[in-house]
């Protein structure tokens, strides 16, 4: 009986999927253990900077103390150093040109790669701090907990996805929704006023049939520059938590 079950197509399919996931997990663990000290240290600092607190919930008072050893470490790639610098700049809401040049010099980031940091201004990120400039208001985050020290951060886009599915997205930040709500109300009034006759003889209601075959609402999220793995996971999690919704995420790259 055991051999017969194993020969079943459905069992073979599940076994192949499990084998694939097991292989991917093994490969990731091998890479992690190969550079465990560097990866764990780097990811831990990224989490602390992004969250504003360490793994114990203590506020990060001196971010520079965390990142200087990373910038001076020759084993850390230039790309990782750029990401750390961008996190610091976003947290500080920009920095002076003098400090930026000093940080990039310590990190050994050449001029062409430095353009990656400066070009983030085109996406609305304040890089160079201006005297008397207004401090950018940060979005209010949802309270969350994580059992893993190295994955405490939750992408902001997950908050947005959840707000959309719950109908609580801020209309001041997304003014398009106000007009959309008005149009939906007008459409509802118009459709109810102009409803056509319904056949009682054959118990046929075309509007009801359309409602039955129509799939649930779909949320499409496009991330400029490409979506991250954590953002893709967020879309999956929101879809799983809200069976009526389908969340699709993608990017321009």
What does this structure look like?
This protein is mainly alpha-helical and 253 residues long. Helix content is 56%, strand content 5%. It is built from 11 helices and 2 strands; from the N terminus they run ααααααααααβαβ. The chain has helices at 2-7, 9-34, 36-51, 63-72, 78-92, 97-107, 111-118, 156-166, 176-193, 206-213, 229-241, and strands spanning 218-223, 246-251. The protein has a two-stranded parallel sheet with strand order 1-2. Strand 1, helix 11 and strand 2 form a beta-alpha-beta unit. Helix 2 (9-34) crosses helix 3, helix 4 (63-72) crosses helix 6 (97-107) and helix 5 (78-92) packs parallel to helix 7 (111-118). The radius of gyration is 25 Å and the shape is flat. It starts with a helix and ends with a strand. Mean pLDDT is 81; it is low at 195-214.
Topology:
Layout: H1 2-7, H2 9-34, H3 36-51, H4 63-72, H5 78-92, H6 97-107, H7 111-118, H8 156-166, H9 176-193, H10 206-213, E1 218-223, H11 229-241, E2 246-251
Parallel strand pairs: 1-2
What distinguishing features does this structure have?
56% helix; 11 helices; 253 residues; mainly alpha; single chain; flat
Task: Give a brief description.
The chain has 253 residues and is mainly alpha-helical. It contains eleven helices and two strands; from the N terminus they run ααααααααααβαβ.
Principal-axes geometry comes out as flat
Count of alpha/pi helices:
11
Unreliable stretches covering 5 or more consecutive residues: 195-214
Q: How much helix is in the residues?
A: 55-70%
Strand count: 2
Report strand order across the widest sheet.
Answer: 1-2
Using only CA atoms, what is the Rg?
25 Å
Could you state the order of secondary-structure elements as H and E?
Answer: HHHHHHHHHHEHE
How much strand? under 5%
Major beta sheet, specifics? 2 strands, parallel
Report the structural category: mainly alpha
- Indicate the mean pLDDT: 81
Q: Please report the distance between the alpha carbons of the first and last residues.
A: 49 Å
